[in-house]
Amino acid sequence: MNTNYRLVAALLSAGVPGTGQLYNRQWIKGIIVLSLSVVAVYYFSSSLPEAIWGITTLGDVPSRLIEVDGKSQHVPGDHSINLMIQSLIVLFLFALYILVYVSAIKDAYRTGRHRDSGRSPASFKQTLKYVHDFKFAQTMLILPAAGILFLTILPIVFMILLAFTNYASPHHIPPGNLVDWVGLDSFAQLFRLKSWSGTFLGVLGWTVIWAVIATVTTFVGGLIVALVLSQKEIWLKGTWRTLIIIPYAIPQMISLLAMKMMFNGQFGPINQYLSYFGLGKLPWLTDPYWAKFTVIVVNIWVGMPLSFLLVSGVLSTISTELYEAAKVEGAGRWQQGKMITFPIIMFAIAPILIIQLAGNFNNFNVIYLLTNGGPSNPEYQFAGHTDLLITWLYKLTLNNNIYNIASAIGIILFLIIAGFSILNYRQTRSFKDEEMIQ
């Protein structure tokens, strides 16, 4: 007798999720899916239209004051940003329900196919055992995946959407004002308006220079120190390593605030020591060029210990047999370093250098805690001479409530970092020759 349980079960689940499982005599699973579907339909029947309205209009009526018996009375209206967030949450939940809906149809079809082949449908106990034995890892990832969805992806989507609105002070800050969709207007302002484009290009240029110099100097410094301390002639290696690692062991915020005090142009101890030698006080943090020099030097002091540790770890893994074979071939120290040490170090460290470079694009602490982006630049919009894109973005949002421009900057910064990192990583030998070191 020809049967077509799979088609009937799939159609039933497509119509009312859970009924396909009930048709396949999986009673407990069917009741669970059906109950979930009833709750979802009840919830989304009212919330989904509101979410679509909220995300498309961002509200119609702002909060306002009206006169009642000669007194001002506040009348709450639509809060555009709250509407956007609430709508995104509902839409994300609806997307999850769609996944459950599709999974229920597939499950009903798969069970129906088993029935068509003469097998009995799995009981609820057998289903639980199958999940425990074969799908345990995937099941344990459900909660972390939900956390990533709502705590990482949703905020990122929210930030991206803000770039396409006019959410900025003073005329479009809820609840007194509504926020509207403006398309690419925020990006157009960054590149077309001279006040914004000049600031953006200037800060972007310094951000790139800073990221490259900060990455190269800390790596080269750590490399040199690690190579020196790896030599047999050096005494007290443990003491030297401890002294070098100390700046990394101290909380960075404390180190940077201490450095800010030491480089203070008026009462900092560094300028006081210089005065003992008849040298004038240097504007470490108040002159644009000296401020940039200072943050680079301090970053070397803060960041070099990590590079030192990484390079030292790689050096400890290099077999001495390679150097002995090189000596037999007549290679000197320089040739050994060029042909053995440096290639192996770069093979291991190159991906980390790319990560450090990306991190220096977003090196908020060093810039903000040392100079706060200063000294001020009258030609820039809310940015100083040492501001990076990340610190400028912070000032635009926290200090000036210009969220749309800040979101546009965040998107551009992400595209720069992601594109640069991916392209460069694919060019490294670590990516191309993964089997070089086993």
UniProtKB/TrEMBL annotation:
The chain crosses the membrane at residues 27-45, 83-105, 141-164, 203-230, 242-263, 289-318, 339-359, 402-423. One of its GO terms (biological process) is maltodextrin transmembrane transport. Its main location: membrane. Residues 204-424 form the ABC transmembrane type-1 domain. One of its GO terms (cellular component) is maltose transport complex. Pfam families: BPD_transp_1. GO terms for molecular function: ABC-type maltose transporter activity. This is Maltose/maltodextrin transport system permease protein.
